[in-house]
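Attaching the record inline, Q. Sequence:
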Amino acid sequence: METTDKIWMDGELVNWQDAKIHVISHALHYGSSVFEGIRCYKTEKGTAIFRLKEHVERLFLSAETLAMKVPFSKEQIEQAIIETVKTNKLETGYIRPLIFYGYGKMGLDPVGAPVNVTIAVWPWGSYLGDEAVKLKTAETIRLHPKSFKPQAKVGGFYVNSIYAHQEAKKAGFNEALMLDHEGNIAEGPGENIFMMKDGKIITAKAGSILPGITRDTILTIAKDNNIEIEERTVTPEELKQADEVFMVGTAAEVTLVDQIDDTEIKNNHTEEKAKFFRTTYLDIVQGKQDKYKDWLTF
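Structure, as predicted:
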């Protein structure tokens, strides 16, 4: 992993190698942390952070689900993220704000433990690479919506994603395809899933999935280009019969899918909408489309 010089910890910038926590920190034992994945990109006007405000809003929403009293305001965290990117002179890369229950209390009730906040940044390319990927339907299903908060990014929830991803890698695939508790399409371990069929863009409805910020970006692009949208239940069989399939997320950006289990996906429909969404998304984050400039924090 490529590192940078400084990490923001509880209001101070410290050297990367000095950013340490106690081994009895609550989050290390119980997964009581919340986080965001944010990206910044090099543009003609300098480095731009994509949809910073929305990410920080969701970070605080996630913290609320664990009754965390964050010792900083949203505005302070936004400024701290900007400061950390600037200090590290990061042009293009990944930003990871993390809020966690620290050292001071053990047991399942975290309330009373200190709440710590860190922000790390580093250079990182597309999580799944630039080529089309192959998905394996995982036996590990997405957590039941009554067992977790789908709208929150809580550290402990992601053990579910680790299990699914390990399944896929062990079987020789790039990534996992996760089903919900009813056997329908949910999402990837860290990505939302879209399909194109007969000119429509279709994706799983909110409920068992994280309604991702990149997902919202793709839906906005579709709406602005008069592409019909359907948010609904999608079966595995239907996904495999799609004209095109792609995954989206801050880390994955927009990644095309060319195989699910033993089924090849066409990805050769007349207009190749998946490639259109990928190109448009990358143009937006790189500041090449003025229409969406409000999504960029320079």
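The chain has a mean pLDDT of 96. Residues 158 and 189 are 8 Å apart (CA to CA).

More tomorrow.
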